[in-house]
Each structure stands twice: as structure tokens, then as C-alpha cells.
Amino acid sequence: MDFSKLYKPSALNSYQFIALTGLIMSAGAHLVLHFFVHRLPEGFRWLYVCWAALYVLASLKNLFGKPDEGHHHH
């Protein structure tokens, strides 16, 4: 099992990349809201749970899924 598929940017699948980008952008928004607006919208922290769940599911697919076959157009 190749665990570099969990952290190496070139080995991530598109869903892992989206989840990591979402986590980073949510953290940035969290900092801006905390320090400049001084409040967070209700339920904002659930974003982290959603991004983490997407990352875990995508990682499982990346680790245990079969490599995609190319799209064959006939």
C-alpha cells in the first residue's frame, strides 16, 4: 500500500485535492471572520467535518480503488 497517496500532491486524486483546498480556504475564512468580524456564522465549524469526511472517503478510494481506465470513445 502506497501511503504517499495521502500526502504527496502529485499522488492525490481530484477529490482529495478539492478537500484539502476546502480545508485551507475554510481555515483562512475562519481567521478573517474571527479577527476582523469577531463572529462566526452558526454551523461554520461543520465545514471542517465535511471537508475531512470528503478527504477520508477520497483517500480510501485512492488507496483501495482500481486505477481508472481511460475513456474509450467509439
Keywords:
mainly alpha; 2 helices; 74 residues
Can you describe this structure?
- The protein has 74 residues and is mainly alpha-helical.
- The protein has helices spanning 14-37, 46-64.
- The longest helix has 24 residues, at 14-37.
- The chain crosses the membrane at residues 12-37, 43-64.
Order of helices and strands: HH
Count of separate DSSP helical elements: 2
Topology, number of strands: 0
The shape, in one word, is elongated
SS strand fraction: under 5%
Helix content bin: 55-70%
Structural class by secondary-structure content? mainly alpha
| Radius of gyration using CA atoms only | 16 Å
| CA distance, first residue to last residue | 35 Å
Note the main sheet: none
Low-pLDDT stretches are: none
Keywords: Membrane, Transmembrane, Transmembrane helix
